[in-house]
Amino acid sequence: MTSWLLGTSILLIHLLGIVSAIMALMSSRTSQGAVAWIISLLTFPYVALPAYWFFGRPRFYGYVSARGQRDTVLRRVLVRYRANVQPYVAPSTNADIQAVEQLAMMPLTHGNQATLLIDGPATFESLFDGIDRAEQYALVQFFIVRNDALGQRLKHHLQRAARRGVRVYFLYDEVGSRKLADSYLNDLISDGVAVSAFRSSRGFKHRFQLNFRNHRKVTVIDGKEGWIGGFNVGVEYLGENPRHGPWRDTHLKLEGPSVLGLQEAFWEDWHWATDEVISLNWMADTSSSATDHHVVIVPSGPADRQDTASLLVQQVIHSAKQRLWVTSPYFVPDQGVQDALRLAAMRGVDVRVMIPERPDHLLVFLSAFSFLPDMLRAGVKIYRYLPGFLHQKVMLVDNEAATVGTVNLDNRSFRLNFEITAFIPSRDFATSVEAMLEKDFAHCRRVTIDEINQRPVWMKVVSRAAYLMAPVQ
């Protein structure tokens, strides 16, 4: 009897391995990923099966199905939003901008004001002042929230807003904020703040989807002011953690019709998390916009039919004619982005990539060494930021456009995380980004090919092994 059960179990595991291999063949986003999963599932199903079901899912299927289920309820609101924003749509004949609009499934709008917020003090002063100005509602979403001095300040402002009658919605990622104390959340709830975690594994049907994260950082006040960028909530983001030293990051404040794009992204996330359809203001507001920046908001994530974030980065690279400056704390791009960067450098574009000198994720740091030689030989200039940890996610294209958002140049941001980016094809905004990045480059050292080649053999082997894990880092 025991041998029969053992044999049946072994047969069942191998059958599940075959079924999962077929699923990987039909759904993996890259041929390399499909081959790796198929070989593993057929050869070592005892190990590969749980790994595939926890980490191999290519799409956030629950979010996709939820979109379909809520179409009848929420589409009416979206139709009204699109109608209200129509007077501020800026039709463009520029094919590069049109491509970004198609990726975003949101329009380019005018009548916006985009203000760079450089480093923590400026960012959180602006954000907290915005919460204090809220009259109707405040939507607040972060990937990481800590129960430290900065987290307490955020809680205080949210509680104060709720006490004066503002509807406050607070959304955090269940994995990124896994250490957030229940007492922190209960204090918010007791003052009337609506609180929810974003759980990718919500419900029995989606229990295996643990590898997806909501990496967005979005704040919206009354549908009129919005914030996105690299900052989470913790004292290390103010440079107060000795391990990281000074923290270099960039956030963005938006005013005008583009804020409704941020609001739509939060609204969808909140509905997934809670099944609640919240009533918000969908009338575009330009009363406080002192400038006329053009903006496209680009939400991206594993529920998209395409790899929106990766395609956005590739589109930005291909559009560059004289200059492409990129900053990212994690630099393990997929092959498409690597090829695009090399080709841009080969056609004479000044391609610069700024990454940290000090790593905070060892595997990501080691992985980069496996492909940096090809980058350097093609003419891509790699810079390492010296004063502290670099966390900003910014791209500058020629003198014409810039992006600020949450997307890192790695597979997790491209395919596994929910992210959001502001694409701003406005020359004066690009000029302000140029001035900011020039100061950053002044605090960098340039990486040389000799430095990479002189690594010991053991480190080259470790780097290649680390790079094999890039799809799930």
UniProtKB/TrEMBL annotation:
Domain PLD phosphodiesterase: 210-237, 386-413
Enzyme Commission no: 2.7.8.-
Lipid metabolism as UniProt keyword: yes
Pfam families reported for this sequence: PLDc_2, PLDc_N
Residues spanning the membrane: 6-27, 34-55
InterPro entries cross-referenced by the UniProt entry: Cardiolipin_synthase, CLS_N, PLD-like_dom, PLipase_D/transphosphatidylase
Cellular compartment(s): Cell membrane
Gene3D superfamilies associated with the record: Endonuclease Chain A
Keyword Transferase recorded: yes
CDD domains: PLDc_PaCLS_like_1, PLDc_PaCLS_like_2
Domain of life: Bacteria
Its membrane topology: Multi-pass membrane protein
UniProt keyword list: Cell membrane, Lipid biosynthesis, Lipid metabolism, Membrane, Phospholipid biosynthesis, Phospholipid metabolism, Repeat, Transferase, Transmembrane, Transmembrane helix
PROSITE patterns the record matches: PLD
PANTHER family: CARDIOLIPIN SYNTHASE, PHOSPHOLIPASE D
The protein's name in its UniProt record: Cardiolipin synthase
Organism: Vreelandella neptunia
